[in-house]
Write a structure and sequence with these properties.
Chain A: It comes from Roseomonas fluvialis. The complex is a heterodimer. By secondary structure, chain A is an all-alpha fold. Chain A is built from 14 helices and two strands. Chain B has helices spanning 2-25, 32-50, 54-81, 85-107, 132-154, 156-166, 168-173, 178-200, 210-225, 230-251, 258-270, and strands at 122-125, 128-131. Classes of the chains: A mainly alpha, B mainly alpha.
Chain lengths: 314, 280
């Protein structure tokens, strides 16, 4: 890591740190915190999907686990919010290890891996919706006690700082991974699994490490969500929406890059807000935009755009 | 149990389209559930606005959705995916998001159902009471299955489809328009959905997310039956129908679905080629 690599991350951190000094609107702050939480979840997806080429359609399994454990430990067992949050991340990582172990050991790749992760997330959703400990269909509510000791803040701006700090950490971790031996091995597995194996890469071990890191990071996003919005149900925590958000942002912003997920989250949610403003409150219209952007990005990958423009000018 | 078998038949029909598309195009179509939702709304509108019985609407709807499927493959999925597996997953995911939310925008999130005089009628079959829509669904599924078999086996189009499924490059070399065959196959798969939609409507509700309830079920059936196997899809459908009704009976309403997901995960982990599948 050199100073030049760190500069954009420092710029992001500085910009994010300044926002609460100028923005006081709760609506805008809510929007920004939410976008940052999605960016964090997406960064988690990116570690496995972007660098490792393993497209998960079920990152909700990790998001929800992080969120539920953070909430349950506080509400049911009176634990302090910070260790609860840490425990949520740890359990999400563990769930990642378990799912990864089953899926990768069976050699599931590509579409099959996508489907099996989706199914795991759905199993969790059904269980959370029926179980006592998660509050069942009624959901779970974290009591509002605004105090920094409780990981709750009177000012929304403070929470924005926390979210931005976590996203900064995630960016640094991604950069570190990219430069590490593990990162190189992951990319090798993505590009050609058989060749990587032939060169002596322990493919299973590499994938497992990636899914653990990925799940932990997405679990952190879930814990953060619970702590900010103070309410969870099975559809929020384990719903397909978060799996889709987690993969959409990196793909739109650039999968397998440090800034892709953050960029994608900002673009998508910026567009969604803009659409809502223009089209009014038609339900689902912002998501239609998500779908269109996704298809366009796949059809015209951003790295091809300079070439397309050149052809168009001629 | 018997009712589960009958529901399973309609599941099988939903899965039939999916497995056909997979067998030929080697793609997993994530938009399958959303297309089913769209077809159910079409059947709903036909009944609610024009008073057309869903069973009567089935064939025109199938024709309409054949066209829709053809165009979607030709204009969106084909060009956007450029032949890559991951891209197809993403494009069909994008499509499903668009369709689902357009339905949400137009019809709002209310759950709707139609009233047909025969919805509650039952047929006595030995000791069992079978609901009329389910018996019709079962019969229609068998008919569609036979029709598909004949189509694939004896017509020029069917032969071309099988050729493309086996050997894409070879088929192109002997003058088969592969892009056209892809689109036709996708159209047939979508037409199967339209018929399933018409069959489901009398005994099922419709909402913008209803396709989700079916899509994982359909994937499970397809995986269980072996990707690309038509017989596998029908048998898989019957099995899943029974599993669903049994797990609903023993685990209760809210946990009932879990049986299907667990079967799905188990089959994928243990035998990804499915029970009837030869291809890996």
């Amino acid at each position: 890591m050199t100073g030049r690599d760190l500069l954009p991350i420092a710029v992001f951190a500085l910009l994010a740190a300044c926002v609460p000094l100028f923005v006081t609107s709760n609506v805008v702050l809510n929007f920004l915190v939410f976008t940052l939480i999605i960016a964090l979840a997406a960064q988690g997806w990116n570690l496995l999907g972007g660098y490792g080429g393993q497209y998960s359609f079920g990152h909700a399994a990790f998001f929800g686990t992080g969120a539920y454990l953070t909430a349950i430990l506080q509400v049911r067992y009176g634990m302090n919010a910070y260790p609860a949050f840490a425990a949520g991340i740890a359990l999400a990582a563990l769930v990642g290890l378990a799912i990864g172990f089953m899926a990768f050991r069976s050699g599931l790749r590509g579409s099959y891996f996508a489907l099996v992760t989706l199914a795991f997330a759905e199993v969790f959703r059904v269980l959370a919706n029926a179980s006592e400990v998660t509050g069942g269909a009624a959901g779970i509510l974290i009591r509002l006690r605004a105090d920094p000791m409780n990981f709750q803040f009177a000012e929304r701006g403070t929470f924005l700082w926390v979210a931005a700090a976590l996203v900064t950490l995630a960016l640094l971790a991604t950069l570190a991974l990219e430069r590490s031996r593990l990162g190189a091995q992951l990319v090798a597995v993505r590009e050609n699994e058989a060749a990587a194996q032939a060169l002596g890469v322990d493919v299973l071990a590499v994938k497992l490490r990636a899914i653990v890191l990925s799940a932990g990071m997405t679990g952190a996003a879930g814990g953060l969500y619970a702590q900010y919005f103070l309410y969870l149900d099975a559809q929020i925590a384990y719903g397909t929406w978060i799996s889709v958000e987690a993969l959409l942002a990196p793909i739109v912003g650039g999968a397998g890059t440090v800034f892709g997920p953050l960029l994608g989250a900002v673009i998508l949610h910026g567009l969604a807000e803009a659409t809502k403003t223009i089209a009014g409150r038609i339900p689902g219209i912002d998501l239609v935009v998500f779908g269109i952007v996704l298809i366009l990005v796949v059809r015209f990958p951003p790295r091809d755009i300079p070439g397309l423009l050149k052809r168009w000018r001629r | 149990m018997l009712n589960g078998l009958l529901t399973g038949a309609v599941y099988g029909l939903v899965a039939l389209g999916l497995t056909l598309v997979y067998g030929v195009l080697h793609i997993i179509n994530f938009a399958h559930g959303a297309l089913l939702t769209a077809a159910m709304y079409a059947a709903y509108v036909a009944r609610a606005s024009f008073g057309v019985d869903p069973y009567v609407a089935a064939l025109p709807l199938a024709a309409l959705f054949f066209g829709v499927g053809y165009l979607v493959q030709r204009l969106v999925i084909g060009p956007a995916s450029r032949g890559k597996d991951e891209n197809i997953l993403l494009v069909t995911l994008g499509l499903s998001i668009i369709i689902e939310n357009l339905m949400l925008a137009v019809f709002r999130s209310d759950t709707r159902s139609i009233d047909v005089p025969y919805a509650m009628e039952v047929i006595e079959f030995g000791p069992a009471l079978l609901s009329y829509p389910r018996v019709i669904g079962f019969g229609a599924t068998i008919l569609v299955g036979i029709a598909l078999f004949v189509l694939m086996r004896f017509t020029a189009t069917g032969k071309a489809i099988r050729a493309v499924a086996k050997e894409r490059t070879g088929a192109a070399l002997v003058g088969i328009d592969v892009a056209h065959i892809y689109a036709v196959t996708f159209g047939i798969g979508t037409a199967c959905l339209a018929i399933s939609a018409a069959l489901l409507l009398p005994s099922f509700y419709v909402s913008p997310r209803v396709g989700n309830a079916f899509v994982l079920v359909a994937f499970t059936i397809v995986v269980l039956g072996g990707m690309g196997s038509v017989v596998g899809a029908l048998v898989g459908g019957l099995v899943i129908g029974v599993v669903e009704s049994l797990s609903g009976l023993y685990l209760g309403e809210s946990l009932g679905q879990i049986g299907i997901f667990l079967i799905f995960i188990l089959v994928l982990l243990v035998r990804p080629t499915g029970l009837f599948g030869a291809r890996a």
